[in-house]
Amino acid sequence: YAYVPSVEPDVQIVLDRSVAFNDQSIGVEIIHINPPAGKTLTDRASVVSGDEEYPIDITDGTTVVNRPGVWKVKVAVYDGEAKIAESLSGMTVKIGVRKAYVTSNAAAIPVFPYATPETAATCLNDVNALCIDGTEIELDAGTHTVSDRNDFMAAVHLRGAGRDLTWINGNGSVLKSGVFYVNSSGFVMENLSVTNFYRTKGGAVSLLANGGTVRNCRFAKNELHYAGGNCAGMAIYSMGANALIENCIFEELAYD
User: Fold this and answer.
1) Where does the pLDDT of residue 186 fall: very low under 50, low under 70, confident under 90, or very high at 90 and above?
2) Is the dihedral of CA 244, 250, 254, 255 positive or negative?
3) Among candidates 75, 71, 14, 10, which has minimal Cα distance to 37?
4) What was the pLDDT predicted at 182?
């Protein structure tokens, strides 16, 4: 990815590598092409998301960023202390977490990025944005009320403390789009119960990637309301034949 700054035409910033990352690190390599003759230039890079900006070390091509999120890479070229070129990448880098915790205790004080049971998030929706392939989310025993639909685009492992212990409340008629909208065949949900969802089409869980696993779960006291057109799903809607639904309980499901 090459970015040509407008500040000084004979300096070109080439962002050679910016998506080789794991759970909390990204790699960035910067190359100058045609620097001004007789000048010694230095590179300074940072990651930017909204109003947040953190410097990153590009001397060895790797850095650690302490705040997961979706970032853009900004690179500047300096002649001494004078900035002569700067470029913000058009691409984004997502830095996620390997494990996050969610508590049903509304009085708990969450601490980003929710890496321990003591610093757990109080809402599943807050953790969702941090997910990458391989992220594990642990929900404690109790009732978790979701504030909005959770869209999972990565191979996330969502685990409760047991289907008789961990309940996800779909918030009744307030939430009309289901609870989980999954677009990854590697998604796994297990050991929890989903209740009180209302949907006009599709299930509380929609598996849209021709795969996914729902194991040891309960779907209870949920409603599906027909709103015209095709009506599919009840508790679970699966697109394709490769989803695995294993050892689940379905009870008191209403349809009209």
Assistant:
1) very high
2) positive
3) 10
4) 92
User: Strand 12-17 and strand 2-3: pairing?
Assistant: antiparallel
Both structure tokens of 194? 């989903």
Higher local confidence (pLDDT), 162 or 131: 162
Q: How far is CA 13 from the centre of its chain?
A: 30
Residue 121 CB contacts under 8 Å (≥ 6 apart), including other chains: 100, 101, 102, 103, 110, 114, 127
Residue type, 97: V
107 CB-near residues (< 8 Å, 6+ apart):
none
Q: What's the rounded Cα separation, in Å, for the pair 116 and 211?
A: 30
How confident is the model over 212-241, as pLDDT tens digits? 999 999 998 776 666 555 555 678 888 888
Rounded Cα distance, 55 and 45, in Å: 6
DSSP codes, the chain? -EE--SS-TT-EEEEEE-----SSEEE-EEEEESPPTT--EEEEEEEEETTEEEEE--SSSEEE-SS-EEEEEEEEEEETTEEEEEEE-SS-EEE-EEEEEE-S-TTS---TT--SGGG-BS-HHHHHTTEEEEEEEEE-SEEEE-SSPEEE-S--EEE-S-TTTEEEEEEETT--B-SEEE--TT-EEES-EEEEEEESSS-SEEE-SS--EEES-EEES-EE---SS----SSEEESSS--EEES-EEES-EE-
Q: Compare 96 and 62 and report the one with higher pLDDT.
A: 96
* Overall pTM > 0.85: no
